[in-house]
Amino acid sequence: MTSVSMTVNGKPVSGDVEGRTLLSSFLRDGQGLTGTHVGCDTSQCGACVVHVNGQAVKSCTMFAAEAAGAEVTTIEGMANADGSLGTIQQAFQDYHGLQCGFCTPGMVMSAAALLAENPSPSEAEVRHYLEGNICRCTGYHNIVRAIMAASGQEVPAVAAE
């Protein structure tokens, strides 16, 4: 066992982990932060995306010990201080960027990383950035609309039925 300490969502946390403990398991099982979803364990789906020192990472492919001393932000850390939805989360709700919700935490975390890197991405840039996140429900269009809205840009029209 190894003792691991890090800051998660602005709060210091620590725990004893086996060397093989993934960051996703440390967060979910050790810290009770179940918003970080694990969908594939192979880095394909993106449901487990968190930020480590400001960088988006798939937490199912990073050992908890690798995050020792790091600043980690999970979906739970994206809410406003008063507990209300953050800008990106609210945009996902307003533009129906979710259905079952399983991929949503990873999508929001990826969107936050994109907007930190590029505050005014084009629709094509949003779609390209989300290539590492799989959604089986929405068809992505409303997710893209939500991210465009969160960036303060014009929102693409709803496709004609």
From TrEMBL:
Pfam (any one): Fer2_2
Coiled coil: none
SUPFAM superfamilies, alphabetized: 2Fe-2S ferredoxin-like, CO dehydrogenase ISP C-domain like
PROSITE patterns per UniProt: 2FE2S_FER_2 (PS51085)
Superkingdom per UniProt: Bacteria
GO molecular-function terms, A-Z: 2 iron, 2 sulfur cluster binding; metal ion binding; oxidoreductase activity
Keyword Manganese: no
Ranges of residues in domain 2Fe-2S ferredoxin-type: 2-78
E.C. numbers: 1.2.99.2
Enzyme class name: oxidoreductase
PANTHER family, alphabetized: OXIDOREDUCTASE WITH IRON-SULFUR SUBUNIT (PTHR44379)
The protein, known as: Carbon monoxide dehydrogenase small chain
Source species of the chain: Candidatus Rhodobacter oscarellae
